[in-house]
Sequence to fold (207 residues):
Amino acid sequence: MKLFPKRGLYAITQCDNKSSETIIEEVKAAIRGGAVVIQYRDKSLVDAVYVATELAKICRINKIPLLINDDIALCIQSNADGVHLGKDDHDINEARKHLGDTAIIGVSCYNSLERAVKAQDLGASYVAFGRFFPSSSKPLASPASIDTLKKAKPTIKIPIVAIGGILPENGGQLIQAGADLLAVIGGVFNDNPEQSARSYQPLFIDK
Fold:
């Protein structure tokens, strides 16, 4: 059983117009740069089973969890460690029923502390808030307030993930407000994933 990390960089794949091998090599690079969680998110899903299975092997070797965005069946097929669920996806109880008690289940909570409390009560492994900054990966995502992170910290006892336009220059304020992990797509995978992932690491060093 892999536990969800309490702190660190959470890298989410950027798959548009990239070959399966490129996605796999970029994930390897992000892990070398210090990513502690990988989420496979692919809206085209052409070689999804192959890519997810390869990523699961890589993550297993590196002893970090692989999560699948939205897709319980793909999680089972690829032997990944769990799923990340949005508001239009499966619910936590359904995911638990199919994946078992040890699976990691994360839930998008957008800007809703109420949704996060409910997810925690239902047995989520972590909650994610965002987007906090303009994001090219999710340009239409509704904005979240840093105040929501501050309010969540005393109430939420499971790890809190922040997402949305996060860069090394702006991530510190989210950690200061209460985020435990920073979920990043473009900031890692737009250019040189290993070096980009490494540039986030100083944010997680207690000063």
